[in-house]
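User: Second chain of the day. Same drill as before.
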Amino acid sequence: MFILVTSVRGRIYSWVDNQIDPGGQLGDAISLTIPGGASTNNVATQLANDGIISNATVFRYWLRCEGELSITGFMGCDTEKTFQAGEYELRENMAFEEAVAVLDDGPIPEVFFTVTIPEGLRLNEIVQRLLVVNNRFDEQQIRDALENPSLVSRYIDADAPPGSRLEGTLFPATYDINEDDLADEARFLRRMADEFDIRYGSLFDEVGYDPAAVELGLDDWDIIVIASLIEEEARVDVDRPLMARAIYNRLLAGMPLQIDATVYYAVNKAFTDTLFQSDLDFESPWNTYVSLGIPPAPIAAPGEAALRAALDPSEGDYIFWARTDADGVLGAHTFSATLDEHNSAVAVCRELGYCG
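Assistant: Same format as last time:
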């Protein structure tokens, strides 16, 4: 009887050992995806189904016993083992220890490509930028995605011009794109729209509306429009809160904003082009030389600094500004409260060749 028990026991140990380490050559490479929240049982079943290990049940008990599986002791093992979600590359016919070593190293790092969308681009410029930085994007696919009514900021004004519903609400930033998503135009644009809502919402929660915005009865869409004006008109961050205050002061005084950036947008000119008097006189709700108030929609994509400035402007009674490279900062403006002060600043602007 003793000999029979010993023989059976030996066969069981031999069989278990063969499950733990089947020996022989490793087989083909196998890509394994462990989804988020997968249990050890799920992973064991995946490994066995793909032929990476020989037996899921033995593998589970082996893990619970920390690799010291015995016939008499396995029922008392209770070690919990977890694996990170992600992509792994293993081989067929692996020993348990080999498979676990690969899994313990963690998933294969995802391959990311970075795509940078700078601040201040118009929607059409964003489209062209995407085509330049990612040659897997297709222009028609981008434009089809832009027409999807679900692609819209929650802050958009329901009365905004249909052709401008996305202008200014695709957030300019540097994005990481997984290699698998490089040809998914709709997904990337959705990320940009979602990122805008997150960034603006976070800023609003932090600072709220300026009292002038409340007095003027402005809403979030109006703030975003103003931020786009600041983005295009200001050249350095230090000017943005000052320009925001000057814009609010002009609106409170019932003065036209007379912002050159709005004219460029209205007449569809690049900022490197020259503006003529005919451009300044061009009838358009976006031309703040001929239309009071703010344009009906943004003129470009504002970044975080411009959005913050529109929500949280500097204090002051500024009404005018002129580029003077103030305080030695290239591109900086001088802000003035009186016409005499402004005329002096304009004189400097002309000397520097910035004003006509």
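The two ends are 111 Å apart (CA to CA).

User: Great, on to the next one.
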